[in-house]
Design a protein that fits this description.
Blueprint (H helix, E strand, L loop, with lengths): L16 H5 L13 H11 L11 E7 L3 H7 L4 H7 L4 E8 L12 H18 L3 E5 L4 H7 L6 E10 L3 H4 L4 H8 L4 H4 L4
Helix pairs in contact: 2-5
Bound molecules: flavin mononucleotide.
Length: 192
């Protein structure tokens, strides 16, 4: 039996350190990321479970300073562009629409991409690299300008990088607490 506890009294130390430490920052440092670490993070993304092991996720890496980075930034909602522009790496996450074996629609494609993104977020956190996923972008534009084929659709853009400590100091403690606010176990563990 799971004992329901008052979340207010729970400490953060009870989870995996990557879960404890992860949050979606807006204070990215443009410092470049080590290529081997980036590889490792995306290898971890590939180890997520998926329906029929289809692995419907694909990732396109768009590095800061390149022309395509400027084009991708332009597709983001202005409120996202403001902070995401500092991150050294933006990644477009796509899902494959159909099962490769049967050609049937894959109902679990975005679900599986989400699991993979969670894996990469936590693996990145192990290196103190933070991720901030975004749905706030012009999906039509990204699918046009960054198409990887008709079989695939872009679902998310993920900003990734180290934190700029000087910037994070400007976030008010109230805003930080609100950010971490979560539904209680009572709310998410249904009795019926
Ligand atoms: C699919 C998805 C889309 C999101 N879109 C945005 C976004 O467009 N802009 C933004 O600032 N945060 C976005 N977020 C981040 C969430 O707001 C954030 O994960 C949530 O508030 C919990 O905060 P935390 O990640 O810091 O724990 C998105 C997260 C996910 C998973």
């Amino acid at each position: 039996m799971i004992t329901l506890q008052n979340q207010e009294t729970e400490t953060q130390e009870k989870f995996l350190s990557a879960i404890n430490n992860r949050f979606s920052p807006r204070a990215f440092s443009p410092e470049e990321l080590d290529e081997n670490i980036v590889r490792n993070i995306f290898e971890a993304a590939g180890f997520a479970p998926s329906s029929y092991n289809e692995q419907p996720w694909r990732y396109r890496l768009v590095y800061r300073g390149l022309d395509e980075h400027t084009r991708l930034l332009a597709t983001l909602a202005p409120s996202n562009r403001e902070w995401a522009q500092n991150a050294p790496l933006l990644t477009i996450g796509y899902f494959k629409k159909t099962f490769t074996l049967t050609g049937e629609p894959n109902y679990y494609n975005m679900y599986d991409l989400g699991q993979s993104a969670a894996y990469l977020s936590l693996q990145a956190q192990e290196f103190n690299i933070y991720t901030h996923q975004m749905g706030g972008f012009n999906r039509r534009k990204v699918n046009e300008e960054f198409s990887i084929g008709d079989e695939f659709e872009a679902a998310v853009v993920i900003a990734m990088g180290k934190i700029d400590e000087a910037l994070i100091g400007t976030v008010s403690p109230v805003a930080v607490a609100a950010r971490r606010k979560r539904k209680s176990l009572e709310e998410i563990l249904l009795k019926k």
